[in-house]
Amino acid sequence: MSAKGDLTTFTDGAKTSSWATEAMEWAVGSKLLSGKGGNVLDPTGTATRAEIATILMRFAENEK
What we know:
Blueprint: H1 21-29, H2 49-62
């Protein structure tokens, strides 16, 4: 994992579980995750189908 995003830019970034922090930093740094609006990441929430589809689409576009 090379990209590293800053979770502290989100109001709830500190709520990210310790086991998920490195992966979440990578996902934010890779522009796969950009939050849910209002500077909220919602690391303990449940992703919708649309959100997962967006993440997968961004991942595929980054791999081109």
